[in-house]
């Protein structure tokens, strides 16, 4: 219905509908899907550390720059988080502690959708812009933007940098090149791998400014200086050697690599994956440098590093949608059979969008977090001041910063480095903990020497997790079976 009215409805109205769809797909059931991932707790703990006036650096671990926690803390602080929620030790109240930051992520995803439209409209025109933003709003893979991750936080800054570079003219090119550089610098200051986008945005700045070298310098200054705050902070606190060690450790971690996360992308969203890859091939034929410089350096970087996660695709999801839209529109424009070209265009594009939206709704309507919130409530109600709570950051951040429980390390790996100093222990043994047991004998020992006092199970047997669209559930298993063990 939306696309059948494209010739009659103003693009602004269509964009409004697309943004409304994006709001639905990213805000509906925000605390139910996806599950609460380990890293979400890490970033919330760091944000709470900032809110409590303790600074952006937590402990001595330098895995990422700290603009992410600063932005998250500032945004949550505007709502009075967490005190404005009047938190209590029950399951519903705990869910609210995750609702607020996940709403923030959803709003950022809506902004991302708008920026995808602006970029595509500026570069390729309104038809491609509408299709690209529609794909970004409704396709299943974009559920990854719902999680509280650095990649989700940096994306609007990165997209803003591209858009400003495209909008430069002779009258404003110096100002826009500087602001574009600031946005990209902040994106890199959130997560370093986005440095691979420097050639893309630098090229846009240079060529859209009439090859003015001064604009390139103005762009590069903040791009290079802002991320330097990270090692400078480490040096100022006499932790530069630890910073070097942790940065190298990040690059040397091992996982199944790029082929595996490519397979996961295909399993989660086969339509967009095939369209996007085909669009990349089409970009090579057409010498579409924006698409190629957006995707190729980033993919080469993922291929080189040892550790990859499925959500690492986030910075290139927009270009998957844009390249897909370019391919679709160009193919459909070549269909010249009288009286059928418009109908075919409507059927193809609306069919893909409806299929993607239906698949997304099926996935985001699942509830995979009940067990995590129930386990958190149980621990809160049973942890006394003489009890050490060993749990992942999914739980520890709220015990520490919201409910101010004592003897709660940042995560269970604490026992690998320090002895337990209390007589009692509560262990939250979730699937993530079980994966980490091989890290050290202390984890296995505390698990085997403790008694199970409560279990929490999420039943997903009604979903075919080996088939589309519920294959995404296989990436959200941290709440499937949780044991709370006492010693």
Automatic annotation (TrEMBL):
Record bears the keyword Glycoprotein: no
Transmembrane segments: 12-30, 97-120, 126-145, 174-207, 216-235, 257-277, 289-307, 313-332, 344-364
Occurrences of domain Glycosyltransferase RgtA/B/C/D-like (ranges): 102-221
Record GO biological process: lipid biosynthetic process
UniProt xrefs under InterPro entries: LipidA_mod_glycosyltrf_83 (IPR050297), RgtA/B/C-like (IPR038731)
UniProt subcellular location: Cell membrane
Keywords: Cell membrane, Glycosyltransferase, Membrane, Transferase, Transmembrane, Transmembrane helix
Gene Ontology CC terms: plasma membrane
One Pfam family of this chain: PMT_2
GO molecular function: pentosyltransferase activity
Record membrane topology: Multi-pass membrane protein
Protein name as it appears in the record: Glycosyltransferase RgtA/B/C/D-like domain-containing protein
Organism: Nitrosotalea sinensis
């Amino acid at each position: 219905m939306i696309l059948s009215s494209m010739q009659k409805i103003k693009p602004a109205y269509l964009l409004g509908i697309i943004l409304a769809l994006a709001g639905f797909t990213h805000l509906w059931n925000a605390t139910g899907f996806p599950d609460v991932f380990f890293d979400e707790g890490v970033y919330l703990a760091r944000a709470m550390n900032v809110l409590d006036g303790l600074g952006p650096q937590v402990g001595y671990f330098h895995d990422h720059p700290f603009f992410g926690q600063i932005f998250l803390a500032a945004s949550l602080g505007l709502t009075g988080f967490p005190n404005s929620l009047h938190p209590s030790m029950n399951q519903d109240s705990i869910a609210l502690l995750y609702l607020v930051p996940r709403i923030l992520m959803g709003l950022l995803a809506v902004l991302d959708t708008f920026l995808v439209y602006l970029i595509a409209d500026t570069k390729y025109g309104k038809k491609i812009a509408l299709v690209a933003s529609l794909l970004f709003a409704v396709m299943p893979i974009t559920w990854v933007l719902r999680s509280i991750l650095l990649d989700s936080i940096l994306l609007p800054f990165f997209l803003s940098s591209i858009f400003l570079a495209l909008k430069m003219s002779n009258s404003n090119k110096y100002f826009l090149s500087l602001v574009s550089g600031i946005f990209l610098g902040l994106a890199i200051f959130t997560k370093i791998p986005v440095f691979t986008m420097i050639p893309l945005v630098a090229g846009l700045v240079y060529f859209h400014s009439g090859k003015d070298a001064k604009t390139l310098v103005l762009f590069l200054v903040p791009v290079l200086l802002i991320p330097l705050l990270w090692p400078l902070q480490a040096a100022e606190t006499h932790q530069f050697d630890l910073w070097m060690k942790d940065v190298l450790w990040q690059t040397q971690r091992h996982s199944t690599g790029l082929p595996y996360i490519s397979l996961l992308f295909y399993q989660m969203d086969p339509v967009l994956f095939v369209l996007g890859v085909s669009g990349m091939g089409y970009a090579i034929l057409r010498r579409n440098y924006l698409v190629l410089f957006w995707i190729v350096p980033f993919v080469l970087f993922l291929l080189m590093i040892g550790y990859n996660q499925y959500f690492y695709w986030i910075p290139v999801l927009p270009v998957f949608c844009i390249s897909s839209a370019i391919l679709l529109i160009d193919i459909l424009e070549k269909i010249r059979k009288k009286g059928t070209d418009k109908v075919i265009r409507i059927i193809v594009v609306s069919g893909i969008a409806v299929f993607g939206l239906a698949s997304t709704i099926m996935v985001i309507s699942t509830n995979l977090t009940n067990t995590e919130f129930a386990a958190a409530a149980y621990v809160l109600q049973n942890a006394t001041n003489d009890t050490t709570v060993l749990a992942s950051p999914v739980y520890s951040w709220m015990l520490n910063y919201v409910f101010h429980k004592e003897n709660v390390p940042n995560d269970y790996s604490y026992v690998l480095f320090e002895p337990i100093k209390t007589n009692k222990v509560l262990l939250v043994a979730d699937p993530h903990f079980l994966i980490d047991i091989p890290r050290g004998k202390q984890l296995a020992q505390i698990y085997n020497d403790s008694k199970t006092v409560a279990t929490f199970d999420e039943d997903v047997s009604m979903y075919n997790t080996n088939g589309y669209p519920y294959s995404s559930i296989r990436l959200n298993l941290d709440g499937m079976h949780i044991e709370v063990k006492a010693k």
